Amino acid sequence: MTDPAKEAANEMSAVICAISTALPSQTSPHDPTGNDVFDRHNKPRLRRDLILHALSTAYPSTSFHVPPSFSCNLVELYSRVHDINMINFISTAWTKWVAMGEAKGYYEECCHPQWKKSKEEPIPPLIPCHVAFRNCPRERPSENVMGAMGYYCTDNMTPIVGSLEAELKEDAMIICQAVKHSFQDKTVAYAVTTHPGHHANKDNFGGYCYLNNAALCARLMQKQLECGRCIIDDNNEIVENFWGSDGDASCSSSKKKKVRVAIIDVDYHCGNGTSSIFYSDPSVFFTSIHCDPAIEYPFNQGYADQRGSEEGEGTNLHIPLDPGATWNMTYKVALEQAMSAIHEFDVAGLVVSLGLDTYDGVGLEYHDSVAVNRAGFKLNGYDYYEMGLLMGRCMKGKNIPVVFVQEGGYKMDTVGMAAANVVGGFAAGI
């Protein structure tokens, strides 16, 4: 079989621009924080390193960029995507949790099951010990960090750890830089963030996701298309009061319609958070190809009859697939349907939520247990090149900004090349 990386390298008509916290590792990919140990499935820091390493190996012409190291304001940046109280909670939770432990000792029922007290790990990650009644309007976040955790977080798989706030700030800067690079001619920008984001909605987080990077990317893209002004200035710094700035005369608050952009989510699990954020927004078309939520996480959203609401009616396209979906028999048809809908929406920008947990893991030593335990799809190496190629060809000649945003992917022996093949295929197709 043809090597997809060599095929893409020979045919690429666009440059791959990868933005992440570091350049590809010169040593074996690894987790520099040690926090990946808290989940037996999700290894976000290792995944990031594996993807960067695969890109540099498969596509040596890839341009790698590291955002500036200065801090950014998460509340200001994500205020068009999330409730500011939730952002504030995520930003301050670790400090409050540490203070509570020093004052009162930690409650055993709130300790992460993978944590064992040691010199290296004296403080356990924060996970919920309860959940709020989601449909009760009287529920509110507690002042106690444990109570607030149960209000904002939807599961006990998405812990607050000491490195989280810094990592989320790095991810935010990666998204900002990716949007900036996407406006360069013939450039495919790839935001290789540490944490995925597509399960985070306006005021809840979970499913390994804290802040919705794809949603932020779409909003930044819209703003730049409307105003002609990038969130990153000529000095590589974030523009102050960016959301409130007018930019030029074309960015008037009296403008009747926002520029249209689209988000396509190819993760095995429905991007329920992204869908929820834009569900009534007529300016953002969202489509997700995923395993049927009647069987698989996130269970309560992602059904085909959920088409959007109010002014956003018809701008949400869920394409749930049965377990065992293969590229030729099922997935390719679904992707063609999604891309056709995006074409009809006449978008000025595209965001791809790139999840890689669709990989066939049956019978393999390092299978993607997050997916395969319940159902699983059966995509393989070359299928990911075909996926990118199909999306790229559908966008050929449009000359619009495109950003790939990293989501899930848990099969660590294949996740790097799968990512490289999708992005490389897209660069060849466009």
Structural Rg: 21 Å
Number of helices: 12
Helices and strands, in order, run as HEHEHHHHEHEHEEHEHHEH
Largest sheet: 8 strands, parallel
Low-confidence spans: 362-367
Percent strand equals 5-15%
Strands of the widest sheet, in order across it, are 2-1-3-8-7-4-5-6
Q: Would you kindly provide a written description of the structure presented here, covering whatever features stand out?
A:
This protein starts with a helix and ends with a helix. By secondary structure, it is of the alpha/beta class. An eight-stranded parallel β-sheet has the order 2-1-3-8-7-4-5-6, with helices on both faces. Helix 8 links the parallel strand 4 (261-265) and strand 5. It has twelve helices and eight strands. The chain has helices at residues 4-11, 44-58, 74-78, 84-104, 145-152, 164-182, 213-227, 272-277, 327-345, 369-372, 381-395, 415-429, and strands at 15-19, 63-65, 187-191, 261-265, 284-291, 316-321, 350-354, 402-406. The longest helix has 21 residues, at 84-104. The protein is globular.
